[in-house]
Amino acid sequence: MSNETFYLTTPIYYVNATPHLGHAYTTILVDTMTRFQRRRLEPEHVYFLTGTDEHGDKIVQAAAQAGESPQAYTDRISGIFQETWKRLGLTPNQFIRTTSEPHKRAVQRFLQQIYDAGDIYFGEYGGQYCFGCERFYTEKELQDGRCPDHQTTPTFIKEQNYFFRMGKYQDWLIDHIHCHPDFIRPERFRNEVLSFLKDPLEDLCISRPRTRLEWGIPLPFDDQYVTYVWFDALINYISALGWPDGEAFRRFWPNAQHLIAKDILKPHAIYWPIMLKAAGLLPYRHLNVHGYWKIEEAKMSKSRGSVVRPLDLADKYGVEAFRYFVLREMTFGLDASFNEEALVARLNADLANDLGNLYSRVLKLIQRYYDGRISELPGEGGLVDPTRVAIAEVTAATERFAFSEALAAIWNLVSATNKYLVTNEPWKQDPGDVRTKAVLFSAAETLRAIAVLLWPFLPQTAERMFRGLGISEPITSIRIEEAFSSPQHLGPRQWRVGEVEPLFPRIEAATAKPVPVKTEPTAAQESVADLIAIEEFRRIDLRVAEVIEAAAIPGSKKLVKLRVRLQDEERTVVAGLKEHYPPESWEGKRIILVANLKPTKLMGIASQGMVLAAEDESGRIVLLTPEAPIASGAKVR
Ligand SMILES: [Zn+2]
């Protein structure tokens, strides 16, 4: 058996936000690739690492907002990540946290090693600092004087710090990238890095004074400073393997690959290989870079923009349909648009229709004709070639992260099988005819191959297909190249088809209510008990209403009776605003009304809604009105 190993990591996710689609996508890619490799190599020779990045300013701020200590806060958010991956059926070998003791020890050892080698020096630095990014920006990197990520003006700060001599290794890195054309892939990101390296590389500030930041790993050679978050975070890729002495480090590091989204290209493509070089370690093999999911044209970012929660989609459509959509829809390295309608369309067309119907049709015929038993029969080879082609294409595409192509190749085989059935029409033939049996066996055999090919992408579906076909060997014991073996190698087989359950129920567009695209609350906000979910807010029907007439209510000092119009409807509303807005001031005003409040009686008058007004500490009350003219009945949201 080959001793080849495979080690693939996700970035460790920063715990200032809870998991969004971008995090889920990266982690699903690594899960898929490591599942594929576990079928190609010895399963224990494959290692999948993910985890959380837990130090830095932003974490301290988020924890303070949540009213928690940084440790309690990071424990909680890291737990949400772990739980999310579990519910999505992802299977990392390890979940690393940068606040763990072994990681802290590794970071300190790493720092000491390059400090002793003379690659760290103490100096003063003044520059434009973005507190959101926790880093200095050069004038050139700023866009119109603003942080390119946050669009905020950075603050000029000057302080004494420790610096890593990154510039010293610039020529080495350029050479390394030239000598290893697939070091960074796809190529567009390699080119981006090479073009960045055309300018001299500045040394990297790797410390933060403890007077400004406590929540970090102290420098081993000066405890008045903590380690800059990136310098701490990147080391997780080796600390997780037990560097420097771990057996796992020796086995896996020589075949290390990272997978990242393009926003963190620079730390991974420049800082990290140079850090490794300075510490006398081999660089990783490959850095694989994917694009962004765009939702309403906004970057899927933790700092701003709209967010789709992966678990909302998985709960609604099933983990496997969600997984299929993201793997099928994004071409590796390019951006893709997230659109729930497209997800439903894929689910119906590819999963329910093409695959699901094929599966049900074949199994039902075998049930009906042969009481569920089917034996292999020689002589019918109509699907052998398409199956061999699919195996070759799926393998080649998956190796280079072209998962969308791999799935397209599997679906070509699904179509070929559907066509084969339409051509041979077994449902019109005599069940006792040897050829009818052979056709149905070929179709069942191909479904077995489809399941084997599909397993890294849709593991639960593939396992259900195996159970349905009555195949007793565990799917995980079958190697990709054995997805289709000619029957003579396997000996005579008989399967017993079980009860036929549909693989994927169709989703009717009319019943599919979109999962709301949310404006991201920070993790800190989510933890505060009296916050409400957006769904709760949406239950309140706020409308613009036009006041037609207003009258005093005899005997009441505060109340005013209003007649208001909402589009075609008229209502009576009682408001306690007479002292601030006398009856004569109301007519023609457009106000904001809570339109779905249970009616109440005030001074014997039924009030069908509530008028919104703002009140400050002095008791001054101001009516809320639309900022510009808008139709009565317009929804406020
Ligand atoms: Zn910034």
Automatic annotation (TrEMBL):
<keyword id="KW-0030">Aminoacyl-tRNA synthetase</keyword>
<dbReference type="Pfam" id="PF09334">
    <property type="entry name" value="tRNA-synt_1g"/>
</dbReference>
<keyword id="KW-0648">Protein biosynthesis</keyword>
<dbReference type="GO" id="GO:0006431">
    <property type="term" value="P:methionyl-tRNA aminoacylation"/>
</dbReference>
<dbReference type="InterPro" id="IPR013155">
    <property type="entry name" value="M/V/L/I-tRNA-synth_anticd-bd"/>
</dbReference>
<comment type="function">
    <text>Is required not only for elongation of protein synthesis but also for the initiation of all mRNA translation through initiator tRNA(fMet) aminoacylation.</text>
</comment>
<dbReference type="InterPro" id="IPR004495">
    <property type="entry name" value="Met-tRNA-synth_bsu_C"/>
</dbReference>
<keyword id="KW-0067">ATP-binding</keyword>
<feature type="binding site">
    <location>
        <position position="133"/>
    </location>
    <ligand>
        <name>Zn(2+)</name>
    </ligand>
</feature>
<dbReference type="Pfam" id="PF01588">
    <property type="entry name" value="tRNA_bind"/>
</dbReference>
<dbReference type="InterPro" id="IPR014729">
    <property type="entry name" value="Rossmann-like_a/b/a_fold"/>
</dbReference>
<dbReference type="InterPro" id="IPR015413">
    <property type="entry name" value="Methionyl/Leucyl_tRNA_Synth"/>
</dbReference>
<keyword id="KW-0436">Ligase</keyword>
<dbReference type="InterPro" id="IPR033911">
    <property type="entry name" value="MetRS_core"/>
</dbReference>
<feature type="binding site">
    <location>
        <position position="147"/>
    </location>
    <ligand>
        <name>Zn(2+)</name>
    </ligand>
</feature>
<dbReference type="GO" id="GO:0004825">
    <property type="term" value="F:methionine-tRNA ligase activity"/>
</dbReference>
<comment type="subunit">
    <text>Homodimer.</text>
</comment>
<dbReference type="InterPro" id="IPR012340">
    <property type="entry name" value="NA-bd_OB-fold"/>
</dbReference>
<feature type="binding site">
    <location>
        <position position="130"/>
    </location>
    <ligand>
        <name>Zn(2+)</name>
    </ligand>
</feature>
<keyword id="KW-0963">Cytoplasm</keyword>
<dbReference type="GO" id="GO:0005524">
    <property type="term" value="F:ATP binding"/>
</dbReference>
<dbReference type="InterPro" id="IPR023457">
    <property type="entry name" value="Met-tRNA_synth_2"/>
</dbReference>
<protein>
    <recommendedName>
        <fullName>Methionine--tRNA ligase</fullName>
        <ecNumber>6.1.1.10</ecNumber>
    </recommendedName>
</protein>
<keyword id="KW-0479">Metal-binding</keyword>
<keyword id="KW-0694">RNA-binding</keyword>
<keyword id="KW-0547">Nucleotide-binding</keyword>
<dbReference type="GO" id="GO:0000049">
    <property type="term" value="F:tRNA binding"/>
</dbReference>
<feature type="short sequence motif" description="'HIGH' region">
    <location>
        <begin position="13"/>
        <end position="23"/>
    </location>
</feature>
<keyword id="KW-0862">Zinc</keyword>
<feature type="binding site">
    <location>
        <position position="150"/>
    </location>
    <ligand>
        <name>Zn(2+)</name>
    </ligand>
</feature>
<keyword id="KW-0820">tRNA-binding</keyword>
<dbReference type="GO" id="GO:0005737">
    <property type="term" value="C:cytoplasm"/>
</dbReference>
<dbReference type="GO" id="GO:0046872">
    <property type="term" value="F:metal ion binding"/>
</dbReference>
<feature type="domain" description="TRNA-binding">
    <location>
        <begin position="536"/>
        <end position="637"/>
    </location>
</feature>
<dbReference type="Pfam" id="PF08264">
    <property type="entry name" value="Anticodon_1"/>
</dbReference>
<feature type="short sequence motif" description="'KMSKS' region">
    <location>
        <begin position="299"/>
        <end position="303"/>
    </location>
</feature>
<comment type="similarity">
    <text>Belongs to the class-I aminoacyl-tRNA synthetase family. MetG type 2A subfamily.</text>
</comment>
<dbReference type="InterPro" id="IPR041872">
    <property type="entry name" value="Anticodon_Met"/>
</dbReference>
<dbReference type="InterPro" id="IPR002547">
    <property type="entry name" value="tRNA-bd_dom"/>
</dbReference>
<dbReference type="InterPro" id="IPR009080">
    <property type="entry name" value="tRNAsynth_Ia_anticodon-bd"/>
</dbReference>
